Amino acid sequence: MANDNLRRIGFFEKYLSIWVVGCMIAGIVIGEFFPAFPKFLAKFEYAQVSIPIAILIWLMIYPMMLKVDFQSIRDVGKNPKGLFITWVINWLVKPFTMFAIAYLFFYGVFESQISTDLAKDYLAGAVLLGAAPCTAMVFVWSHLTKGNPAYTVVQVATNDLLILVAFTPIVAFLLGLGGVTIPWDTLLLSVILFVVIPLLLGIITRQYVVKHKGLQYFEEQFLGKFSNVTIVGLLLTLIIIFSFQGNVILKNPWHILYIAIPLTIQTVVIFFLAYILSLAWKLPHDIAAPAGMIGASNFFELAVAVAISLFGATSPVALATIVGVLVEVPIMLVLVFIANNTKGWFKNNGKN
Questions:
Q1: Is residue 262 a part of any domain in this protein?
Q2: What are the CB-based long-range contacts (under 8 Å, 24+) for 30-38?
Q3: 201 lies in which domain range?
Q4: Model confidence pLDDT, tens digit, residues 107-138
């Protein structure tokens, strides 16, 4: 059985950590030695959303959306506990713990290494990340933990609605900015691109294939055609992201570390908080794992866009949000590993 499971993981997923590190390095090298490439791709942008990255993220999400049965979406209301955990962790806990942890490190632990002005800017970037819980990328983490795709869609969709009303007041409160603004076109475009369109196309594709080929063909053969698309999309996305930011990362190595430490601690704390709460509330693993992943990861597209629009592309605030991208993928892969190896904790929590 163990060998069968290993074979089902697939070539890319089996060595995903190696591919991720390799793609991050490749992106930085491309950005440093072949700057014309990221400059060319940067031309294809709308509402501060990179079109090439948007396409690749769409490719990551679409295969998971194929697994969504519309009937199962309607059944989510029968077990709302996972939604409650997602909402509470993301909006009543995460932004405030992010502020507290970042403040502790930037104004305390690293006081002698970081000036007060830089500490303030790095704190602002951390708060922007903490107030923007994950949307698109969480579909990848849910996929890797064999999360319930229908439930994950609802968790993400309701999160997107809450971002519309909660992001600005939380950031304004924590930073005392008062005049914080959101690039609404960026936010709305992201929701449409990364949730609405792939969900609709996934449901349409599923219904069409099942109608003409049958459910057995769809589950046993059709879905297999997309087995590596999500992972390939993730790896190509990382190359592009780090080609954009490679120069910044190379110029600020120690400050990257200073920012990365509190962000990493925050990610791990929030994941386990949501994960353990789900365990205590008797949720099955395929709901608990995505709940932890949504809280732990960040909507970095929104955080980076807001940082750039408020403080400028070369500001320390923008750098802090970029570090969020740098640390998120490796840390989330570790959390995926932990979630997959603690599934036994949930054996009595409903059907997995």
A1: yes
A2: 30/239, 30/242, 30/243, 30/246, 31/242, 31/243, 31/244, 31/245, 31/246, 31/247, 32/246, 32/247, 32/250, 34/243, 35/247, 37/243, 38/240, 38/243, 38/244, 38/246
A3: 17-346
A4: 999 988 888 888 888 998 899 888 887 766 78
